[in-house]
Amino acid sequence: MITIYDIAKRANVSPATVSRVLNGYPDVSQKTREKVQRITEELGFQPNAAARGLATKRSWTIGVFFQDHVNSGFKHPFLQDILKTFKDVMGGKGYDLLFFANHTLEGAQDGFAARARHRNVDGVLMLGVPRTEPTLNTLVGAGIPCMSVDLDLLGPRAGYLCSDNKGGAMQAMDYLVEMGHRRIAFIGDRYSTKPGHDRLLGYQESLQRFKLPFSQKWITYGDFTEEGGMEAMKQLLALPMEERPTAVFCAGDMMAIGAMTAMREAGLTPGDDVSIIGFDDIAYAKYVGLTTIAQQKEEMGTQTANALLQLIEDPSQSPPVLTIGTELIVRSTVQRNVVG
Amino acid sequence: MITIYDIAKRANVSPATVSRVLNGYPDVSQKTREKVQRITEELGFQPNAAARGLATKRSWTIGVFFQDHVNSGFKHPFLQDILKTFKDVMGGKGYDLLFFANHTLEGAQDGFAARARHRNVDGVLMLGVPRTEPTLNTLVGAGIPCMSVDLDLLGPRAGYLCSDNKGGAMQAMDYLVEMGHRRIAFIGDRYSTKPGHDRLLGYQESLQRFKLPFSQKWITYGDFTEEGGMEAMKQLLALPMEERPTAVFCAGDMMAIGAMTAMREAGLTPGDDVSIIGFDDIAYAKYVGLTTIAQQKEEMGTQTANALLQLIEDPSQSPPVLTIGTELIVRSTVQRNVVG
DNA sequence: ACCACGCCGGAAAGCGGTTTACAGCCATGT
DNA sequence: ACATGGCTGTAAACCGCTTTCCGGCGTGGT
Predict the structure, then answer these.
(1) Rounded to whole angstroms, how far apart are CA atoms B334 and B38?
(2) Could you tell me the domains of chain B?
(3) Which of A177, A231, B34, B282 shows the smallest number of beta carbons within 10 Å?
(4) A105 pLDDT exceeds 90?
């Protein structure tokens, strides 16, 4: 391995001078600067990140805790999109992304804060991490710059970003009502993630606002999975005809897709028999014609990244709480309700 | 920050002893061992990865170059699945994953090898990286343990893994022929990625084997994107009726989905009018009823991870070249051809 | 001619661990 | 009584880079 000492020797200067040149400090004469640069190139020198990190306490690395609520990992199609733009923004500023493995080693020190400190990351991104994680509070307390998505984790240097979930839910309900629906059911999640909670809130507020009929049986749980959505829809379809909703608001597209499958299996057509509206606008949604509320995923990634950069670069920065607007995407699973 | 010196002081031992305890070396008495462990717990000590990495030349990190041929980044739905199992296996062994940002900084030293060395990664995973990348050879030469997926990058410590693309293509062709098709077109990629190339090979070999008719016009390019598949299909549909294929083998599901869209836009039904078979079995495929050749993605992730671990742990290990079998998934976009 | 000052560049002390060489101690064998 | 040897544990060098403190040198002012 080539070190700055090798370069120093060849250039007849001290390692300190090499370091100065490499970091663009001003107090080096043009002549030495050029000589050092030339030799650096010739030798194909590559600074060692660990050594630099040790000396500067800066790793140019963002730690990412990425977890799917269900199948923890890289599969959830919605979070990918956020991640992509996040990565691009961070990359543009010179940061690489470190994904912490979620398999815990036996006996390994665990907890978010511990792992972040261990790797000396400059900032942390929490993506798809459930609020129920026991060590969340340690992270907040550790004072490491941190941005979460869809998780209201707030601390001295920790902010978060959510879509306007309640507003989006109300957009969905507005549209259903506009299309003539009044008996509207809800498929949400039992664990009350922040988005799940807020979407339920929007549902309930809309019920009151439009003075819609309500039944306890219309609130079902799909826990954001396709299978869950299927089960929930089956329950709704099993209701006696006069209690059956004419439309269902699903708090997530995967659940909506499950619900659509359940309908087809029952010989019904989504839209014609019961209308379905989803939330997220995952990439599939387009292919199955799902009407849904879109989250602006690229925007979310970009803004999260910029907020985190701010938090890292300016310690006095007060932690941001950001809300991103949603958008109604009309496809074919919501049809006008013909009042019988 | 708490260091081993702090612990050493509190335990009245030397830092060396603390290090021994922490790393499970045998030559420490039971009594001191327990004392040190207790204090470590009490103080919530977390070792510093950079310092350790500097001293041991081992980072417990796998560098990942992850690039979509088209939209470089996290969006390609197929690679996700591989990544997930890869991450899980690696996590189980104590490795975290470092994703190199692909945005290159102006003036930054670039090249795969340089970045891998810079971050001192123990191994490298190449995922979705095109063969055309200029600095690929430097990586191979650097002697860093490396596994690639769908990229035939071979070196003293670099192996790769591919699906049996040629075999899979032949599976697809077998099935089409079995379903009565003889005029079969191909949608592939212009840039000749390894999978694209091998699938074309399988197509051509099948043509000969079954003595099928062939036309230059039946080989089209979609470059693995949905839009590309759409364009290619449009070209095929524009052929005079007697030249139009009855089935199309698409070298990737995204292209197949694009092709299906093109058909629908032309007022045709995939399967009934022209049969379509894809390759990959991405998650969407199920929802749109696409008949396709499945790659065993989980298997690919696991095997890639295990191979890389071997390469890392045993320097004398000769680099593996792995092939994973494929599987025909029958859905609805291939229908029996009624020979007129 | 002398002093002060500004500009360059060097020496050396970290950063937080690991590891090698070695020293102290106690029990054992002769 | 003394050499031998096995256990423990210590001192100190080292990994590669940053950064502070400081000294030397050349220049301009007086």
Answers:
(1) 66
(2) 4-47 (1.10.260.40), 61-163+297-324 (3.40.50.2300), 165-295 (3.40.50.2300)
(3) B34
(4) no
